[in-house]
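Quick illustration, no need to memorize.
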Amino acid sequence: MHMQYQNERETVLETSRKLVEKGLVIGKSGNVSMRLRRVGNSNLMAITPTSRYYDGLMPADIPVVDFEGKAVDGGLAPSSEILLHTAIYRTRADVNAVIHTHSTCASAVSVARIDIPPILEEEVASVGGEIKVARYAKAGTRELARNAVKALGDRNAVILANHGAVGVGRTMREALTVCELVEKAATIYLITLAVGKVNPLTAEGLASAKALFARLQSTEDV
């Protein structure tokens, strides 16, 4: 029997395994989702299941659920952070992929609860500006989802206080690149804080990088 949304579920699984390979998560942590084409009145997504090692999963194990969390296909329960994913999709029509990581330096920033200023041109060109830390809320709650959406705004990344990071994109590849750049920016920011001198982008450099972000977001080549 043909599996529903086979390509999309394969993409979610492949990306979740890349998170482990790249050191952006450890073990069963983190979660990945992809918006699926609308069926009738339902908005759907494929999302990693909760509390499972990614290397032991098959594409058919990736749950397909609607935005109310109701199962459409797949026998495993969806990620415990499903509310975070649905909140982002409901708020941001431009987002088709959401990745939540627990990468080391981004997590350190989340513990310090310090926003990452616009320090790198590639950071701003990919994320859209500074990377804000959302107000703390317990994992898996509606409050966490609301706080994350508020701090995310129209940018492509947000830090979850005492937790980790979230990267979003029009495609899965774009969202993964955002997550990698968040970790890079967090690493460089912590190093420069330790050195004792942080020089954010100049007003001219920031404007140029934001203009590039706007151009990239308006192109189809992602």
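Residues 144 and 173 are 25 Å apart (CA to CA).
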